[in-house]
Amino acid sequence: MSSTENLNLLPPLIESGRFHQLVKAGQTISSSFSPLDNSFSAFITYANTDIPSKEKETKSRTDEEQPIYFSGIDIVPSSERRLFITDTLIIFAAFNNLLLSAENHPVGWLQDDNQVKLMRKLAIDYVNFIKECWVHASQPIPRPEGPLQFSSDHYRSLYTCFSLFVVLYIPEPGYDLAPVGDELMEWLNIHFIEPSTEEGDHLSALEKPWEDESFWPYLTRAILRGLTKSSAFFLGTLLRHESEDLQRLTTTLESLVGNQPRLQEFNAERDFAFSFRRWKDKVKALRIEMDEIPEDRRFDEFDNWWDRLSNIVGILEGRFEVIKRVCEDLGGDWKEVCVAWSIFVDPRMQRQHLPDVVSQVLGDTPPDPTNLEDMIHAALFSGRPAEGLRNASQLDRWLAAHLASIMAPLQLIDAEDDEDADLSTRDEHVLSYADYLHSDPALWRVTVEYMYSCGDVGKDRADEILLRVPLRLQEQNFEEIKIRAGDVVGVLKDVNQTCFQHKREAVRRSVCRIAAQTLVQKKDYGLAVSYCISAEDWVGLGSVVDRVLDEYIINGPQIFSQYAVAIAPSAQKLQTPQGHGLSVHRLVFTVQYAHLHELFERHEYQEAANKIVAIFSQDIVPKSWWAIVLCDAVQLLESGPSLLFSSSSASFMLQKLNEIFVRTSQGSGDDYLIVLSRKLKGGGETEALENLRGVRLALARYFARCTVFSAQ
Amino acid sequence: MIQTGLIPNAHGDLVTDASYDFYGLRLATCSLDQRIKIWQLDEANGTWSTEDDWKAHDAAVSKISWAHPEFGSIIASSSFDRTVKVWEQAAPAAAADQQTNANAGGQSSSRWIERAVLPDARGTVRMVEFAPHHFGLKLASIASDSILRIHECLEQPSLTSWQLVEEIDVQTVADGGWCLSWCKDRYWGEVIAAGCGTSGTIKTSTAVETTNTPSSTAYAITSVAWAPLCGRSYHLIATGGRDGHVRIWKVKPGSDDAAEGDHEAAKWTAASVADFDHHKSAVGRVEWNITGTVLSSAGNDGRIRLWKATAGNVWRPAGSVGVEQATGETSTQTENKDVDMDT
């Protein structure tokens, strides 16, 4: 995940250490950040102060190429790593749900046994999952998707760290005060296998294995690690040794090793402690027996077997200096010493006492500062989880984020809230991981999931990412058309859902507004209107409707009607005006007006006349459209023989007409005539008024016909 | 740090600015060659290809800025020809309908239409930046006459009429670094940090008041960047100066409850939280990523340096890239290992 700190871009523009020559020539470097994935561009530009002129010395590069370089901060996760990221999200989400449900419970609910049990289960899920990844990464199988981005050893490190964390910090409820030795030894034996199986196989094949130089180290370590089977086997071989003393001692030792009391064999810790004391007395007796053997009988032809045996008995006696020395001789590190302490020196040692022992051991055998895994182990052993996180973040931000997300509810970190800090330690690590995920824009769902699990800072950052998820409405491909036919627009739908899920209404509205704008560009007015309504963006709705009305002015009634049909369903949904103001009125007008033209098209003139009266009396015609609608009425006024308007309706239209004339004479012509003027393609106010005089004439004739009709 | 791509030859002369669109899928570049180019990212392989290319101004183009996409596909460019121009990408349908690119001398291939020319500046225009979208379709520009101008679009769909709504005299010293950056957050209203001249001062300006903020050296500040707030309880403003320093300022707004006329309490205050002199030479540009977690700075040492906040809000170097040839074996090796050329 980490990459080179200082990178030289290719192809280089100038020799090493010569950049000042470019600066002298009035040039410098500049860059800009990409919102897509934290990548950035870099290019050579002019130095800000110099006013560039063709005469100036910028010539030195003008004939050369002007490259733009692109770089990323993090290496984009690929192959197995992507799977690892997306799959562990599932566990993270489950964990997060648990934390969210804590909000509905009293304080301290999370620390309740049941919840801790659940957290432990999820933590173990992580461990098991990492283990699977490690196993998968270790397999020598062909990898068509390319080589692994992270080695199997990396996953092994994650495995050891995470499982150690579970052992030390999330014991089974009720066991937090129980001796920890057995669990630690199990952890050590799983992850740092010693002695090796190969050595065991080699030795077991020998007639007199003690003649092999690896025999005693092997046996000692097997006993140190509590490997009863192989200890028993090789102790058994010693019964063939020529020394009767050794045979005798071995018999006792074999039974001691085989019968060392283990915590899990007891129901009560007290019984375990009692039994351990009695066992230790037997070890002491063995020591006394050993000491009675004279010096000259302590050798065989190869070795001082007595010394070797003494080491083993020293371990069983729980002598710290022996354990430490033996571990060092065997190549074991501080971990082995600490774990052996918890088995032999103080078998009742609890988790809380571990840091004291560890500090004592680390004083003599410090962890390897170049080995991050070891540093994490040391911090966890030492009871310093926050320090463990810092080391973990260097090893893999995934590890730090997921450990921190468990540590926080267990109150291992952030116990004291720093008033000044906007970020908790947990959020810091989770967001750092999310930042890494942002290097792959395709992982946006995962990225925002982690960010939204944080406090305000994280949520606001997630908003920025979510807002910038490309909606891809511009792309015309078959698949998309299929999706759009169902009114569900691919990515946009996902983004909307994510907003709902995390209650980010402001983001959702903003995204809808952007989508509406894009859809208007594509003349997809139907969807644009529904997104405006969804965003409650009434100003935006108004402008979309204006665009549809523009279609009438520019392209005439037929094309206009096609577009208006698309927005009709939205208008129907909004029929009960909820005070959304002008935009909704205008939307309703547009739909009704399109309907009017359909009636014209179908020659349903009576219906059309009724429609005109209706839209005027409902007061939904914008002033700028009065003139247009009145002009439309002319053909109805002039059609015969039946009279399509009642005389009162005709009077009403005359009123509207007069208002236009009056207002225009008062200088407000623009408000009333602008649309008609545009419709007349370049004709000004005069031409528009001319048209309206035609309407007046038609109305006058109509009234005349009314009079004649009523006289008949 | 990893190289992810390359445009081998972007322009016929020095590139003056490169600006990503809202999504980072397109890159607008401008150059001393008076042209603007729009590049499209192919996400499948990380390569960039020219989408549009046209002659935009009668002199070098200095800066370019994208409007928020809720206004459409719009860019503004500032130029040494003393104008700011507003361009709109024609919708595919509209492009067929009407003659594109009204600009004289332009190429017919461009789908970008010149919507407005703002000729108010009495000097070369050095910087232009659209306001955060919640303030409407507005843009701020700063010219070598040291006037910060704010224009607002009066008719949105047509984009043709723009009103000069604000003229702020930032400071009158010639030959400074002219820079500005909008406060991205809505709550505090329209606030701009702008720097100009050689006093080393960045002023935060609202429509009603101007406050001097960081002032520490006698060197010109060449670049200023206002970090996205992103839930923090304070603002961060980064400055780059000719003194070679990259500074990060923690800026706190004046108290809301300040009594009328109590200017001290109402003033914005700034305190330095980081000061880096790694460039050892003038810093030309500072910029934040979208979440305000990474700051980049470009210096006359030929390197783009990144800065990140670490535990306890301590800012630390986070790598760099440069265009010089690598020296020695080690760097060549790391290059071989890490450079991933997708082009």
From TrEMBL, chain A:
GO molecular function term, any single one: structural constituent of nuclear pore
Cellular component annotations (GO), alphabetically ordered: nuclear membrane; nuclear pore outer ring
Top-rank taxon, per record: Eukaryota
Keyword Transport: yes
UniProt-listed GO biological process terms: mRNA export from nucleus; positive regulation of DNA-templated transcription; protein import into nucleus
Localization annotation: Nucleus, Nuclear pore complex
Pfam assignment, any one: Nucleopor_Nup85
Keywords for this protein: Membrane, mRNA transport, Nuclear pore complex, Nucleus, Protein transport, Translocation, Transport
Broad class of the protein's primary localization: nucleus
Purpose of the protein: Functions as a component of the nuclear pore complex (NPC).
Subunit structure: Component of the nuclear pore complex (NPC).
PANTHER family in alphabetical order: FROUNT PROTEIN-RELATED (PTHR13373), NUCLEAR PORE COMPLEX PROTEIN NUP85 (PTHR13373:SF21)
Sequence similarity: Belongs to the nucleoporin Nup85 family.
Name this polypeptide is given: Nuclear pore complex protein Nup85
Organism expressing this protein natively: Laccaria bicolor (strain S238N-H82 / ATCC MYA-4686) (Bicoloured deceiver)
UniProtKB/TrEMBL annotation, chain B:
InterPro entries: Sec13/Seh1_fam, WD40/YVTN_repeat-like_dom_sf, WD40_PAC1, WD40_repeat_dom_sf, WD40_rpt
GO molecular function, one term: structural molecule activity
Pfam families, sorted: WD40
Region (Disordered): 319-343
Single GO biological process annotation from the record: mRNA transport
UniProt subcellular location: Nucleus, Nuclear pore complex
Keyword Zinc: no
PROSITE patterns according to UniProt: WD_REPEATS_2, WD_REPEATS_REGION
Positions of WD repeats: 8-49, 54-88, 236-259, 276-308
SUPFAM superfamilies xrefs: WD40 repeat-like
Sorted UniProt keywords: mRNA transport, Nuclear pore complex, Nucleus, Protein transport, Repeat, Translocation, Transport, WD repeat
GO cellular component, one term: Seh1-associated complex
UniProt superkingdom: Eukaryota
Family: Belongs to the WD repeat SEC13 family.
Name by which UniProt lists this protein: Predicted protein
